[in-house]
Amino acid sequence: MPATCVVGLQWGDEAKGKITDILGDSHQFVVRYNGGANAGHTVVWGDRTFKLSLLPTGVLKPHITSIIGNGLVVYPPRFLEEVEQLVSAGVPVGSNLVLSDHAQVIFPYHMEEERLAEADADGKIGTTGRGIGPCYQDKVGRRHAIRIGELLHAKHLTERLKQIVPFKNRYLQAFGGKTFDVHQLADEYLGYAEKLRPHVADTTRLLQAGLAAGKEMLFEAAQGSLLDVDHGTFPYVTSSSSLPSGIWAGTGIPSRHLTRIIGVIKAYTSRVGRGPFPTELNDGPDGIGERIRKIGREFGTVTGRPRRTGWLDAVALKYTADLAGADEVTVMLLDVLSGLKEVKINRAYMLRGERITHFPSDAYELDQCEPEYETLPGWSEDITGCRKPSDLPTAARKYVDRIQELVGLPVSMVSVGPDRAQTIPMK
């Protein structure tokens, strides 16, 4: 009973959506297991581009059952907005989209909490402002969390909000924030509940039944491994487990069912928000970093924020590939590097005068690291029309081969453009 996981091995935005879309045809379930509407997937079909921030990529294909697992936090208006956008675009969305009754609900007070926290310059970590972190805080704190299934019971929801909202208001008031009315929130969210109701189910039971029936499952991670709340560059991370380890907790499916883990990387590195980034190219408006940003369209799918860009970091990739238990790697956006005279890969760090080849366990140490680059020849050819490995210029192929050697995993696919056809199987 094969189950596959597609996971990003960098700081997110690795073009995982394209790989999930390609693989989706051979799976009956596509499942998201972490995060919320702070993660963006962009899928290109011919002349049509779909940008999803909460819904699984599989929702674009009606024959696939798409699951939003219990590990997610969900802002109902965003869920309904994405569904409406797809329906308006001619994509049927109905019983093929299922939302866990145990997923957590994001309320406006979560967004206000995050706004206040990010307004503090000393405490700012560069979040998306979607209320993700405060909602997860309530989940692990237990007392002030509300699950999707609770929205379906009007009296119960109102009572819960009567317990929670006064506490939130006292907290928000103390920091000069906006406060909220219990009954207004209850009415608003009960309205959402009726629209959500057809999609809500016990997804753990549904997935376990699917496994028993021999159904094939594709799990898609949100964010990237370096943003994992436990193993990433803490505190500049997301609030959930973005590694495959999050699948068990986030869906109820034990990890022993995973038979293939695909690590997705860009041919370079990017990150959004704050945090250490040893290979970042701060080289001005005419430099390579800005060139990569423009050609690679490095702007957040959710926020539109310009991403920071830099050379590929093989030390970080080896670290995350081992954490993820990846079996293979796919290299995305290789075409963005075309036209450069040379390309670089970081293979070690210098930390306080010492050469290290491991990824530091703390962000403040990573921030002190200087990269040790290996320089390879670039290529001038336009590779967007390449369709098989032999079409790639020698220098591009050598760059991919060197990634394999440094990470210690085979490269199974290379992407040379946003369209599905611009994906080269390497084996």
Question: If you had to describe this structure to a student in words, what would you say it looks like?
Answer:
There is one protein chain. 31% of the residues lie in helices and 22% in strands. The chain is globular, with a radius of gyration of 22 Å. A hairpin with a 7-residue loop joins strand 19 and strand 20 (423-425). The protein has 3 domains: 3-99 and 200-262, Adenylosuccinate Synthetase, Chain A, domain 1 (3-Layer(aba) Sandwich); 104-196, Orthogonal Bundle (Adenylosuccinate Synthetase, subunit A, domain 2), CATH 1.10.300; 268-425, Adenylosuccinate Synthetase, subunit A, domain 3 (Adenylosuccinate Synthetase, Chain A, domain 3). Helix 3 (108-119) packs across helix 4 and helix 5 (154-174) crosses helix 6. By secondary structure, the protein is of the alpha/beta class.
Please name the defining characteristics of this protein.
427 residues, alpha/beta, Adenylosuccinate Synthetase, Chain A, domain 1, Adenylosuccinate Synthetase, subunit A, domain 2, ten-stranded mixed β-sheet, four-stranded mixed β-sheet, 12 helices
Low-confidence stretches: none
User: Radius of gyration from the CA trace?
Assistant: 22 Å
The CATH class assignment of the largest domain is Alpha Beta
Number of H- or I-type helical stretches = 12
Which secondary structure elements does this structure contain, and how are they paired or packed?
Elements: E1 3-8, H1 16-24, E2 29-32, E3 41-45, E4 48-52, E5 65-68, E6 73-74, H2 76-88, E7 97-100, E8 104-105, H3 108-119, H4 132-141, H5 154-174, H6 182-196, E9 200-201, H7 203-212, E10 217-224, H8 246-251, E11 258-266, E12 269-271, H9 288-295, E13 308-310, E14 312-313, H10 314-324, E15 328-332, E16 342-351, E17 354-356, H11 363-366, E18 370-377, H12 394-407, E19 411-415, E20 423-425
Parallel strand pairs: 1-10, 1-11, 2-5, 2-10, 5-7, 6-8, 7-9, 11-15, 14-16, 15-19
Antiparallel strand pairs: 3-4, 12-13, 16-17, 16-18, 19-20
Helix pairs in contact: 3-4, 3-5, 5-6
